[in-house]
């Protein structure tokens, strides 16, 4: 049974001509469209090794294409298409290389999100150390830019005078970018099972995002729960409760506190109290998918299969956009198998629902049809 699924952070998809295909989750068709749009820019299919000129639009298209390939788990394809860009630091990727097209502009044309995706990609191909090296390099760049801004210099360290408003906006932007890099580093370290460094990284994010303290401390506690260190997890959860009490009433923080308690009960196989606590969460946030899913799992472990099955089926029927999720469907199909030897028909009905609503990247293995 899946209690709580920590999913990989979704790759952000920015606006381009393929956005209607993205919104309808036709990812493969969107990939094909980006290929045709890149061909119109003189790049893409059959253009490898030929001289080309980059523009901000063409690089944005490349980012969207690589994001789509990653979304479809076509990691090797994404890596192959990334190779001609090298480390994304070649001269023709800078505004200064095209003075007639971008007069007076300086710096890299490569979207920051594309740099982050390029850094993360090796971890999906079984090379987490390479990903970590790239992420550390990105972190160093972010820190250097922040240091320049805090010293009163421009982002690149030059003496260009920036208006106070622009400097503050730039500081906010680069702090958020640094946080994004550090989240990716922590996820990579978790993949490598280096829990000590992952926890240290999450701790260091708090200084850049103090408003996320409750969520980050909760996340650290849940890491310790997953590796079986319940006492350390409970210490972190106590810190969360203290932070919650200091901040005052906040629904998202209240949900965090209750979810933490419920997960501790689950780790102790105390399904009755876990179920009761998930119900408390649902009084605050009735549509919380993790609480609904786990409440149903608790009912199953309490021997109330029919109630559990009815709850999950009701959720999928009432709000398929929210609950046609792989972990929910995995639990539901498991319950069908426990309920009857004729589970295949019900699984097929779920597959039909998925086919109507979900896109190309949906993992149908969760339906256990084979």
UniProtKB/TrEMBL annotation:
InterPro entries reported in the protein's UniProt record: TPR-like_helical_dom_sf (IPR011990), TPR_rpt (IPR019734)
TPR repeat residue numbers: 179-212, 255-288
Superkingdom of origin organism: Eukaryota
Pfam families attached to this UniProt entry: TPR_19, TPR_6
Coiled-coil ranges per UniProt: none
Keyword terms of this UniProt record: TPR repeat
Keyword NADP: no
Name listed for the protein in its UniProt record: Trafficking protein particle complex subunit 12
Source species of the chain: Xenotaenia resolanae
